[in-house]
Amino acid sequence: MLPNIWPILFVKYRYCQEFIIEKLIPQVDRLPRNTALKIVAHYFLVKATKTLGAICLLSGSGYGEDAQVLARTLFELAVNLAYFVMPDEESEREERAKAFICDDEKQQESKRTEMERLGEDRKCSDWISEMKASTQAMPAQNHSCNAKPRESLQNMVKALGEPYECYWHFLYWSLSKLAHPSGLGSYSYLQSDDESGEIHRALAAGFDFHWRMATAAVSIFGLNSLEEILDDYCRQWVEVTHSPSSKESIQ
Hints:
75% of the residues lie in helices and 0% in strands. By secondary structure, the protein is mainly alpha-helical. The protein is globular and about 60 Å long. It is built from ten helices and no strands.
């Protein structure tokens, strides 16, 4: 039995290709990314769009569990961006986005320290040489990071409240069981009686989280004319997933 094709086609072509890739991202690309928030929002949007495309490919091939694992990634991106834009003060929004960027640089510095220790112990020599070559080819960062420490994902979720808190306690918890070695997660892989349900949950979560990020990006870049279009895609998604014809699987 092949998976329900209509929701997959809607997300992959109507929403992702025709609107996000062909309209939204090109408009964002043409705008200046002169703040930390805009830099992060652009990165999240592009990354999330590729991940949503991968969810569609996996769903179309019947790999619902693995598609849900990718939906977990979209949830984390959606939580971060929602947390960044949560404050009314622009300065606080910028501070939260800077904390994300600085945390990434701190992690890179920590990894360099780990590599030096491995090198001293003469371990992973080939890996270290390859990584050093790749980092030397990258442009140097000419700014210092003085932002406050980045909040944990759980603290972000608590600050945001519903619906993110509900996602965290129920959906994210179950998706984490699929992503990491777990008896609970492994059990779903051994059962094929809910394959269509797994695919539906992956698509529903993937679309929801991506839509929230796209809505935030539109606001961040001042593309207010696209807000109504995004709302219409949300309405179309509800129609596609609840219409009688979309519930029939193709034999």
